[in-house]
Amino acid sequence: MRCAVEIREVTGDKKRYLPLLLLADEQESMIDRYLDRGTMSVLIDGGAVKGECVVTDEGQGVLEIKNLAVEPACHRMGYGKALIEYVAAKYQGQFSVLQVGTGDSPLTVPFYEKCGFVRFHRVKNFFVEHYDHPILEGGIRLIDMIYLQRKLV
User: Fold this and answer.
1) CA 135 – CA 58 distance, rounded (Å)
2) pTM for the predicted model, two decimal places
3) How far apart are CA 123 and CA 129, in angstroms?
4) Which of 36, 63, 64, 127 is the most exposed place for a label (fewest CB within 10 A)?
């Protein structure tokens, strides 16, 4: 029997989730740029943390997903989508747009598009200029950051 899924906000010691955070953003110094100012939520199923999401207020009604990660053994189980839907419902009425920046990867962009996001703009050479090592996803080197947005209505 499957236990109830619970999503709860983390208010202290967010770094204890660093191994999970590093799955979505593999350079700790980049995580340090948003973790303290972000709101972190964790998804718990069967008493174990299966995923996490960190969002930040970017001003002008924009809420940005800075980090979204699910334990690799739990991919394709709906946990990532559940975290997005939780965030969208929680902040509806407080923000007009939910935004995410991600690598131009065939693994992540289609996931966000299936969750109702549309491409908004591209930041050229983001991963080359801001990371101290090549970032690879699915064997592809990430170069540009793709921003996607979803209206919160």
Assistant:
1) 25
2) 0.92
3) 11
4) 36
pLDDT in tens, 78-106: 999 999 999 999 999 999 999 999 998 88
Within a 13 Å sphere around the CA of 98, how many CA atoms are in the beta-carbon half? Answer: 26
Q: How far apart are CA 41 and CA 131, in angstroms?
A: 25
Residue carrying structure tokens 């204890």? 16
Which residue in the block uniquely carries the two structure tokens 């199923």?
45
Per-residue pLDDT reduced to its tens digit, 59-76:
999 999 999 999 999 999
Q: How long, in residues, is the chain? A: 153
Q: How would you classify the pairing of strands 39-45 and 48-59?
A: antiparallel
Mean pLDDT value across the chain: 93
pLDDT tops 70 at residue 2: no
- Measured between alpha carbons, how far is 29 from 145 in angstroms, rounded to an integer? 17
Give the list of residues 6+ apart from residue 77 with CB closer than 8 angstroms, or none.
50, 70
Place of tokens 């967010």: 14
**Distance from C-alpha of 75 to C-alpha of 1, rounded to nearest angstrom:** 19
Q: Which residue has the tokens 């999970």?
A: 20
Quick check: helix, strand or coil at residue 21?
Answer: helix
